[in-house]
Amino acid sequence: MLKQLMLSKKIEQRKAALAELEEQEKGLETRAEQVEAALVEAQTDEEIATVEEEVSKIEAEKEELKQKKANLEAEIAELESELEQLNSKAPKNNEGGKRDMSDKLEVREIINDYVRTKQLRQMEGFKVVDGGVLVPEEILAPYRKPEDVVDLTRLVRVTKVNRGSGKVPIIKKSGSKMVSVAELEKNPKLAKPNITDVAFDIETYRGYIPVSQEVIDDADFDVTGLIAEEISDQELNTKNNAIVEVLKTATPKTVTGLDELKRVFNKDIKKVYNVKAVISASLYNVLDTLKDNNGRYLLQDDITLESGKRLFGKEVIVLDDDVIGEADGDKVGFIGDLEAFCMLFDRKSASVKWVDNDIYGQLLASYVRFDVQKIDEDAGYYVTFTPAGE
Q: Is 302 helix (H, G, I), strand (E, B) or coil?
């Protein structure tokens, strides 16, 4: 039995390493798509050479990953074969106890057991990260989308990364067009594609789950449900706050009255951008009372949008004053293309582990790792609105 446990542990480690390599492959695919777009816009020999160099790097990394995956898959197959042979010789007195990790109730039971005993049962297919337990997406899913909470991660560009820091090539939306061959002959020096490297540096965010030992010992309800809800809330609030802090760094613009606000939507932002308005509740309240010359309210209902509202034909998302602004009463907001303006670099999903604490002995801690960076300054403005006449 001990040898089976040892083999199961080795298989678990190899599969975890294989999953990491698969995540790296996804990151390479994203880079490949960006380089492909850069190649389309490249015109000069220098630009083409730069793209070719990046292609060579990507191809080399792909080949290296392919070889590593093949080695791991071979090891896993060999270990699984050995484990299967040992299991076939073992007495089958507990066939009914075989656990199906695809069953959500079974996953919850394992997490509950981890919370109560602080020990994780070794089971194939259950992910362990840094001595803690990764909370599966299917367990978090029922709690991730409360109807009254805005999830800004669904509006910005999110990319998976496999290291703590690095650079990603980004192509800004330029609205450029192709030119005829005749024009190329006359003017071979066309504008370079605007490719910039955006640096990211992953931060680790930690929180503590307010679950007392008495609750763990005495509760006859689903402890995992309580934990999953709190993890989801903390992760969403943390990422939303990081995104908002980047939105606040957009080029500031003070507008007075409705006409100047319309100008931001109609002229100041290029039409290549998919503009949305992320505004404070106070600004929303002002706009919600304004009418056009025909007596119709400016904010229009639109059930096809998650927010349910449009302004000048664009979606409106409302946040608390002290979230998108600084204090209660701030009439501010970001107007622009959130996906083009900033990117969330996602390193690690939410997980939980027991940690030492000087006062309480041990606390159940949750943590996520990510970074948010501005990638296109021209994609939006941070607007401060003053109603006409004030």
A: coil
Q: 2-41 and 45-89 helices cross at what angle (nearest 10)?
A: 160
Whole-angstrom Cα distance, residue 311 to residue 383? 15
**Of 209, 265, 224, nearest in space to 381 by CA:** 265
pTM: 0.58
Question: Residue 191 gets which letter from DSSP?
Answer: P
Torsion of CA 212, 213, 215, 219, to 10 degrees: 160
Confidence band, pLDDT 50/70/90 cuts, at residue 218: low
In eight-state DSSP terms, residue 44 is S
Rounded Cα distance between 22 and 96, Å, is: 33
Residues in the chain: 390
In one letter, which amino acid is 239?
Answer: K
* Burial class of residue 354 (count of CB atoms within 10 Å of its CB; 0-12, 13-18, 19+): middle
Give the closest residue to 172 by CA, choosing from 34, 371, 31.
34
At 30-40, the pLDDT tens digits run 777 777 777 77
Q: For the segment 299-311, what is each residue's pLDDT rounded down to a tens digit? A: 676 655 665 677 8
- Spell out a b/e string for 258-281, using b for 16 or more CB atoms within 10 Å of the CB, else e: bebbeebbeebbeeebebbbbbbb
| DSSP secondary structure, 133-182, as one string | EEPPHHHHGGGS--TTS--GGGTSEEEE-SSSEEEEEEE---------HH
d(CA 209, CA 108): 17
